[in-house]
Structures are given as C-alpha cells and as structure tokens.
Amino acid sequence: CKILKCNSEFWSATSSGSHAPASDDVPEFCAALRTYALCTRRTARTCRGDLAYHSAVHGIEDLMSQHNCSKDGPTSQPRVRTLPPAGDSQERSDSPEICHYEKSFHKHSAAPNYTHCGLFGD
Amino acid sequence: PHLRTFTDHFQTCKVQGAWPLIDNNYLNVQVTNTPVLPGSAATATSKLTIIFKNFQECVDQKVYQAEMDELPSAFADGSKNGGDKHGANSLKITEKVSGQHVEIQAKYIGTTIVVRQVGRYLTFAVRMPEEVVNAVEDRDSQGLYLCLRGCPLNQQIDFQAFRANAESPRRPAAASPSPVVPETFPYETAVAKCKEKLPVEDLYYQACVFDLLTTGDVNFTLAAYYALEDGKMLHSNKDKLHLFERTRELPGAVAAAA
Fold first, then answer.
1. SS (H, E, C) B42-107
2. Which of A76, B51, B220, B246 has the lowest tally of Cβ within 10 angstroms?
C-alpha cells in the first residue's frame, strides 16, 4: 500500500497540508488535491483494508467539495520538502497530520468512540 | 488477574502463562501471569510486552517491555519516542512515578496506555478508539484476545462462589474453580481495608476483597484503587465507570422458594 507516498507528495505540494489556502492559492490547492486523488486511485487495490487510505480518500472528497474543485483539471508537481534536523525532541509543528488520529481520521466526521480495557490484581 | 474488557465486562481469570491482550493492525499487547501463591489458581501479571507496529511516516516499530521490579520509562531500544520518522513524537513514553507509573501516548492511533507496578505485580489500562480496536486484517483467523473477547470460560474464576465460601468458611466449598482461601486474612479485615480505598461497593471493591483473601497482600488494595483511577481517566463514559455484579439467587433461596 503506497498511501504514505501519496500523503507525502500532497504535503510537499501544498506545504500547509489540508489547511485552508488563501483565495489566490485555491487553483494550486485544487491541482494538488487532484494529484492526491489520482495517487490514491493508483494504490486503491493494495490499500483496500488500510484505515489511512480510506481516511485520505474521504478527506480529499471533503476538501474538493469545500474549495469547489472540479474533478478534471490540471495536476501539480510535488515540491522538495526539507525535514527538520534529526534528534529534535520537541513536538514538530509540521508533523504529518496522519500522525494525529483525532485530526487526521476524524476531521470531517463525528468524534471517535473510545473504549477502555484494564487488567489488574490477582 | 481481573479484566475489564472493551465491552465493559468484568471477569476474574486464571490465564496463567502468556496471553494476548490486544492484537490489531497497529498494536500488540501480551501479558504473562504467574500464580501468586504456590498451588493457587489466582495469578497476577508479572510481565507485559507492548509492540507498536511500524506506521507510515509516523513511527518505527517499537517494543515496550515491563517485568516485576522493572518498569522502564523507555522502549526496549532505549528511545522514548517513535524513532526517526517525521511524526516520531506522535508516540511518547512519560514516566509519571519512577519505577511505578508509566504512560504511553500513541497519538497517531488516538491511544493512551497506562502501566503501573503496584506491589510486586503489574497493572495495565488502555484507551483506544473503536476504529483502531476493530482494525484487523482477518477477524476469523485472530486468536484469543482478552480485551476484546474476554477470558475463555474455562479460565474464569467464579467470583460469587468464592465470596460465598469466604463469608461462610464452615460451609463445604462449592464445586467451582475458585482458589482456596488462605487463613491468613480474615474476611472482615479484607472488607475494611478495601472500603477505605474503594467506598463504592462495585466490582473493583469486590476484586480488592478477593485479592486480599487469596494472597493476604495489602498491595492489591492499591492495585484495585489505581485500576479504578485509570478507568476514571481513560473511560469515555463516566456513568459506566463503576460496574456491579449481576444478582444471582443463592441455592438456599431457591430451595426455600421451592
């Protein structure tokens, strides 16, 4: 499943990920979303059971709808991204959104249901 | 040990040896339970292994392992986060009390795990999204998984039969897999000790009494207390925190009614 590659390319192309673009940047953002959608379609078969893949697909649909992006149109080329230096112990502000469950998996839907399990004593 | 499952079932189990607690696409947790006294069916957790599986651009595979008298505040490779990937800090270990209380935050799967050492033994608690709990490749081929399916029937200890036995020591023991009650801890003392820490007579309180009667080790009072405290922090529905045993007619009452 190559959803990781799709996510990275989208992040590289937009820098800001799924944050709302300025109105001037909407065409570019739509192009990045179309590229992202194309990438997910290419990996759909192998990602069939992948939670992150399905989240990405739903996220793309929502963002395209929010920004009135047409499904057909120009696509974008990914930009080279500079990673922060290794050994940075602080929370990286540009940590991929996919690494924050509540932000990435449920941005556009109801809050997730949490469960609890415990084991103790004898 | 006592198990509270993802579906809020409360069981007291033998499950001696190594058993899987959690097993899904993201996480694998295994516990090892050993008898608390020679010949006793009651066991407690002496070892805990947690494997966080490699996940996208967030975390490398990480293994956490705790044993009796060794509750590390780092993964087995000495690191405290998810490795070298871009989102590595979405997995973090925090030491709350040295050698006694560790919390692991796995933000990339919305999961929090609490591991404690209370007395000699370990306790485990987790908060996990349902979506993650159910993320398995092939549910049919999945083995026993205690947090989801509970303990097998032949591994469960009949709590109520044990208590009835303890309350009336002169009555012949019921034909159940209850452990033998050692004569070191009077029932009234166990009740008083547990009431101090657990004023609500719920299943955590009952578990506490059971543990004191089976071991005579007062540390188990704290184990039940902290299990409830962890439940307070990790359970999403505070109304369901306290669990109570279902009423059951005693054989004597049935006979009298007849």
1. CEEEEEEEEEECCECCCECCEEEEEECCECCCCCCCCCCECCCCCCHHHEEEEEEECCCEEEEEEH
2. B246
Identify which of A8, A101, A117 has the shortest CB distance to residue B5. A117
How many angstroms separate the Cα of B111 from the Cα of each of A114, A115, B88, B115, B219? 9, 10, 15, 13, 28
- Cβ <8 Å between B234 and A98: no
- Contact between A112 and B226 using a beta-carbon 8 Å cutoff: no
B124-141 tens-digit pLDDT: 999 999 989 988 876 665
- B207-232 tens-digit pLDDT: 999 999 888 899 999 999 999 999 99
Mutate to test the interface with A, among B57, B127, B240 (most CBs of A within 10 A): B57
Q: What is the pLDDT of residues B238-247, one digit of tens each?
A: 889 999 876 6
Contacts of A4 in chain B (CB under 8 A): 56-57
Q: A119 with B7: CB under 8 angstroms?
A: no
